[in-house]
Design a protein that fits this description.
six-stranded parallel beta sheet; alpha/beta; globular; about 35% helix; single chain; 11 helices; two-stranded antiparallel ribbon; about 400 residues
Length: about 400
């Protein structure tokens, strides 16, 4: 058996996922009719853990039997490794002051994106907050364009004007990273409204951090989305800390998904350290959305290995806590599944790793050699109307 830090465990019964060909029964509140899924199978972390909900943190596991074809696992592995290696390089470059401004890394949370992309369709829309590098990478945006954007170069995916926090790529359905906490939530509902109005059959998946659920805009958007049965999947990436404050210190409700029950919105917790569970939960929510049944609120229980941003030393948590989560690493879990079930050899995975290393270095070289935007770009992309008369004095 392949060596791995990830423990072997069957995921039977977790998140309503399929085990032994059986679908776990969903829970329906008889008073409200709200449909939820059972709490994921979890394991208690050591006493050193201080963030979020200590007794109900997710554990990455490798299934006893693969639930998807080997092509899916290999795609997940390659996507998540690209996210990880790209962001590790971005962190190094930030330390060298080649990337400036704010920079929020996604390291540890890769399954939140990879599992969703595999469950959704081309043409679906994605919108998120300012931890936004991984989303366009998984959707197919060139790493060159993303790295150039981090360098504030004209060849960046937002022409060097957005930087780390405000990336867009309409061509792949990525409707941007947004710097205002919770600001993207009503925008996600609005994008879903447009999809429904235009009868496209597509949906919008709207990501937010655990701190954003305190914003009033969330409640307004939830109400409208349920009233109009909008095709939107709301996702809270609960990594245990809103910036540096543990969820339990800022909210009486620590099982964040149940907030949606106030709007009779289907909701469920998801072990987002496990890419299979993410895929399955998003697929269920997408089916409801496409059938005209409206939105779903998913709580992705995940973890970031780095601080909130590059300027955050993360002294509010222990080294033991971070290391415990590294032993439940989502990429390592997929790697373990691939090797254990002979989907690829160590040499083949090493070749993927080497190819990704080359992609990341190519993106750095591209960004280094690209020009900065011309000063005239200040006056472009301000208004849709190209000849709007009041841009200049």
């Amino acid at each position: 058996m392949a060596e791995s830090k990830v423990k072997d465990a069957s995921k039977a019964g977790a998140n309503g996922s399929k085990a032994n060909g059986q679908e776990t029964a969903k829970v329906v509140d008889t008073a409200t009719g709200v449909e939820t899924a059972p709490q994921p199978a979890v394991e208690e972390l050591p006493d050193a853990h201080q963030g979020g909900n200590p007794a109900t943190e997710p554990v990455a596991t490798s299934p006893a039997q693969p639930e998807f074809p080997k092509e899916t696992y290999l795609t997940w592995y390659e996507q998540m490794q690209l996210m990880r290696k790209f962001e590790e390089k971005a962190g190094q470059l930030y330390g060298q002051q080649k990337i400036k401004g704010f920079c929020h890394l996604y390291i540890g949370q890769e399954a939140c994106v990879a599992g969703a992309v595999s469950a959704l369709e081309k043409g679906d829309k994605y919108i998120t907050a300012y931890r936004d590098h991984a989303h366009p990478l998984a959707l197919g945006t060139s790493p060159n364009a993303i790295m150039a954007e981090l360098f504030a170069k004209a060849t960046g995916c937002s022409k060097g004007k957005g930087g780390s926090m405000h990336m867009f790529d309409k061509e792949v359905g990525f409707m941007g990273g947004h710097g205002i906490v919770g600001g993207q939530i009503p925008m996600g509902a609005g994008i879903a409204f447009a999809e429904k109005y235009n009868k496209t059959g597509k949906l919008c998946i709207c990501y937010m951090g655990d701190g954003a659920v305190r914003q009033g805009a969330l409640h307004e958007a939830f109400n409208m989305a349920m009233l109009w049965k909008l095709p939107v999947i709301f996702v809270v990436e609960n990594n245990g800390y809103a910036m540096g404050t543990a969820v339990g210190r800022s909210s009486n409700v620590t099982e964040l998904h149940i907030i949606a029950e106030g709007y009779q919105m289907p909701n469920e917790p998801v072990n987002a350290m496990n890419v299979e569970d993410v895929h399955q939960a998003v697929a269920r929510a997408a089916e409801r959305a496409r059938n005209g049944e409206g939105p779903t609120f998913l709580e992705f229980k995940t973890y970031r290995y780095k601080g909130h941003s590059m300027s955050d030393p993360a002294k509010y948590r222990t080294k033991e806590e971070v290391e415990e989560y590294r032993h439940r690493d989502t990429i390592e879990a997929v790697r373990h599944t691939i090797l254990t079930h002979s989907m690829a050899t160590e040499e083949e995975l090493a070749a993927i790793d080497e190819r990704i290393k080359g992609q990341v270095q190519e993106s750095v070289d591209f960004a280094e050699n690209s020009p900065y935007p011309d000063a005239a770009e200040l006056y472009h992309d301000v208004y849709v109307q190209n000849d709007y008369p009041y841009i200049h004095d």
